[in-house]
UniProtKB/TrEMBL annotation, chains A, B:
It comes from the Bacteria. Zn(2+) 2 binds at residues 95, 130, 385. It holds the Pfam family M20_dimer. Residues 213-309 form the Peptidase M20 dimerisation domain. It comes from Cocleimonas flava. Binds 2 Zn(2+) ions per subunit. This is N-carbamoyl-L-amino-acid hydrolase.
Length: 413, 413
């Protein structure tokens, strides 16, 4: 059994790094973009805690951090658990952070109760999971899984032109430490749901059977800028007016397409905008998600058709560039069974709910190189990527206990 | 008669300061925001040219530049003509610049042909007409006319927090030179039309009877940000989805309201935006224009109703702040008659077209303190606030000749 208070206090303490007071929030939000000074502070604090309980440190070439508790047979590949410490620009205190701290709490319990496991156990902190600063998301786990080339990721730039590699070395996280890959026997990640399903069902434990497929696009719409005064409405060629229709139509499409379909316009920019200039160019991001590959393809086809039709109708040029693509990801059956068993053993009175994650997680990439599954705990109001994100100490404790018992099962197999 | 080649060459030479090559543009565009280093270069060049023909310099407290050619009775208030040298972020080579250079060409002709006038004549360069860097537009002429308080304008900040006053002193234009206001007998401004009317009529000369009323608003729409993946479409509270509907509906409203109504969304910003976050807040600018005050009021009322209805329907908070308001402005009858007479004398074969300007001009503010009117020349394709802005040397010459003869009429009255 884990220590609820220690788990909660650690989450709150690390959440002070980047803390923001927010009206209507129980614990405040957290602004801690990947590989900023604040991210380094959080990483350093986390490593310090793990070292206090005797863990050894490994850092790989993209700054992923592995903290290892030895097993009785250290030639066996470790069981790995963890998540990320970076947040969205207006993030909360739980997304990612809970997964790392629950991993740490697991090791603290094993150490405290002097429990030995056959396999070593590692807690991992993946670099730049959110994709808010460096795009796309899940870059660190993507490199680990061989999905992204190391050099491509190191030269990825943020909005101000700084590369991920430069930030790693500025923060002292480019230094390879014990960088010999011991492999991964199984990977487990616990996370807040970031959606409303578990809360609505009033079930505190979720077993994540898989993740929606998702695609990101950079869209550029070009018309002709003109003066806001002398240009009659019917002679304009306003890119934003076309884009507004696209937003409305695609939102309608995704709302009626299937229960799993999602369509989000997260970023929108008018280059060189000015109050009295009708926009000649608009750039925006489009994020489409679906549960099955054929449906994702169909959603994309329909969305593109609509955008082309609107662009044609308004005499606008349209360019759509895919920047990230992830097929729907089913998790490993035996890992799911381990979680199921750990749930039954720990909370026989709870019937955990099996669900599909709408959010991508590092676990998606790791599932390509090791058997993987995830555990969810509820999110209050289904909120995430929002400063008001919240999960209660009791709910976090339940999830952490299931993780602990899952890890013990896996590490002794 | 003015010197077409000299006028054109001067416009092209000053347009090199901030020049950008643009595909499909005959002469390229110009990026020269108010009170940047480039604006200073253009001001210095302009002053140098005027001094070469013996003009004396006056600079007032907001950096407006007056270049004076003496009359035979220098106790009389001068006839003033001019415009501005600043451009939009993606501006052209004629908006404002032509008015300053046509004023200079007028003085060059008088000097060359040794023509004396009773009254002194001044060519003026107003500070920050465009409103692209410091908001709102027409700040320099607004201070001159007593519409804005000097100190408010000096402390106005650009997007990066730099004040207009700081920039004036950095560029050496805070220094008062001969800053004693001699008054203004009449003010004439020549400008490109920035719209399609004269070109469609194939008439090269426009007499501007007045200017549309216009209002600027800062609008903020607030919903709740959430994660692009786990949040079902029907549970979202997406500010951008609401704003997209507002853009579509208000564009429709202005398109059918009256032939003079205009509605423009020039700027739109999602604070802390991220690809996988559905926007919780959107800020945008709204620019409404109409020909008559009652209609402007009615347009505003309807626009606000629509925005409130959409906000309510999507459960969004809405805040609308008016940032600038200009009632419709009729110009002075006797000034208009002078222009009419100058047209008849110079180009008896042309029947100039009388029209209303959709763009605000420094002349609007000056009309509150001195009799004022404007002359227009055509804009190719009706384009302005666009790098492809163009008016031919022949058309500029015609306008300049009418200005020259108008000024001679006025300066001898
Ligand atoms: N969990 C999470 O926020 N992941 C970021 C990737 C995504 O957009 O789903
Ligand atoms: N002429 C011009 O571009 N003026 C700027 C003020 C306006 O937006 O009309």
């Amino acid at each position: 059994k884990c220590n609820q208070e220690r788990l909660w206090n650690s989450i709150m303490e690390i959440g002070q790094i980047g803390h923001v007071d927010v009206e209507g929030s129980k614990v405040g939000g957290c602004h801690r973009l990947a590989l900023t000074d604040k991210d380094k502070q959080a990483r350093d604090l986390f490593i310090g805690w793990a070292k206090e309980i005797g863990c050894t440190l490994r850092v790989d070439a993209v700054g992923n951090i592995f903290l290892r508790r030895a097993g009785t047979d250290n030639d066996l590949p470790p069981v790995i658990t963890g998540s990320h410490l970076d947040t969205q620009p207006t993030g909360g205190k739980f997304d990612g952070i809970f997964g790392c701290l629950a991993g740490l709490e697991t090791l603290r319990c094993l150490e405290e109760q002097n429990i030995k496991t056959l396999r070593p156990i590692e807690v991992v902190v993946w670099t730049n999971e959110e994709g808010a600063r460096f795009k796309p998301a899940m870059l660190g786990s993507g490199v680990y899984a061989g999905v992204f080339k190391l050099n491509d990721v190191l030269t990825t730039k943020d909005e101000s032109g700084i590369t991920l590699g430069d930030e790693l070395s500025r923060l002292g996280y480019q230094e390879l430490i014990n960088n010999e890959d011991p492999g991964c026997y199984q990977y487990y990640e616990i996370h807040i749901e970031q959606g409303p399903v578990l809360e609505a069902l009033e079930i505190d434990l979720g077993i994540v059977a898989g993740v929606l497929g998702m695609r990101w696009y950079d869209v550029e719409v070009t018309g002709r800028s003109c003066h806001a005064g002398p240009s009659p409405m019917n002679l304009r060629n306003d890119a934003l007016v076309g884009v507004a229709e696209m937003i409305t139509e695609l939102t309608k499409l995704a709302s009626s397409f299937s229960k799993d379909s999602r369509c989000t316009f997260g970023e929108l920019n008018i280059p060189n905008s000015s109050t009295n200039v009708s926009p000649g160019k608009v750039n925006f991001s489009l994020d489409l998600r679906e549960g099955r590959l054929e449906e994702l393809d169909e959603l994309q086809t329909k969305a593109f058709e609509i955008m082309h039709r609107i662009a044609f109708h308004h005499d606008l040029e349209l360019s759509i560039k895919e920047t990230w693509s992830l097929p729907p990801c089913p998790f490993d059956e035996s890992c799911l069974t381990n979680i199921q068993q750990a749930c039954e053993a720990t909370y026989p009175e709870i019937k955990p709910h099996t669900l599909i994650s709408g959010a991508g997680h590092d676990a998606v990439y790791i599932s390509r190189v090791a058997p993987t599954a995830m555990i969810f705990v509820p999110s209050e109001d289904g909120l995430s990527h929002n400063e008001r994100e919240y999960t209660s100490p009791e709910q976090l404790e339940k999830g952490c206990n299931v993780l602990l018992n899952t890890i013990i099962l896996a590490a002794n197999a």
